[in-house]
Amino acid sequence: MTHESSVLSYSPQSAIRAREELFNRLQHYPATPEETERSLGLFVRGSLLARMLAVAELYQRITTLPGVVMDIGTWRGQTAVLCENLRAIYEPLNFTRRIFAFDTFEGYAGFGEKDQPSDLHRDGSYATGGDYAGYLRELLLLHEQSNAMGHNHGKHQVIAGDCRQTIPDFFAQQTHECVALAFFDLNAHAPTKEAFEAVYARMVPGAIAAFWQLTRSATPAEGQVYVQEILGKKPHRMHRAAIYPGLCYLEKC
After folding, report:
1. Which of 6, 28, 152, 217 is the most buried (most CB within 10 A)?
2. Concatenated DSSP letters for 152-189?
3. Looking at the domain 46-252, which fold is it?
4. Is the separation of the CB atoms in 207 and 62 below 8 Å?
């Protein structure tokens, strides 16, 4: 399907052409595979780097907290993978920092009357196809094994299904788990509301709940849930990532 970045952009055509050329040059980089693997920084454009650094900003805020990381609406799993590598950088000896990635892998689910479905955002859009959950499990394992203390691996899980069911099931089975950091990227009102309520109950004081779409009018679900269900009702402090304005996060009081 069409990704929104191909039709929704603040960039002029010249910048989009430059982005395409950077990707083309990555695919045809005139170097050995070993040198290419070590040279990815040549091709990561600024806006993507800012997104990665924003995840790092949030991760650094939880290094003194207990609890797991949850990536809810993980899609291709980039945030979950980034968090595994950040774990290895910032707290390599913390083997209790488990990461759980949740997604249907069959596309969005749960769009209803409070949402604004479109060709880009509707039930079924952003499906990954194939056994992507299995692929992501293998990818997380490879990252674990390549990181420091890589012999101690298998700490993470990829959980497929509708999060309105899989998250309550997860907490029912993992009665001891608390949450230090949770990312939400569901884009539908009911799943966002239900997932947040379930996760918030397990968040430790100081824990972070991050929203990728909180201020976007094209996908209002996160903003609606925040204004209607959280603001003035749950004690917290609200922040915006310093270098990536789209990422907003609350810190539980």
Report:
1. 152
2. S----EEEES-HHHHHHHHHHH-TT--EEEEEE---SH
3. Rossmann fold (3.40.50)
4. yes
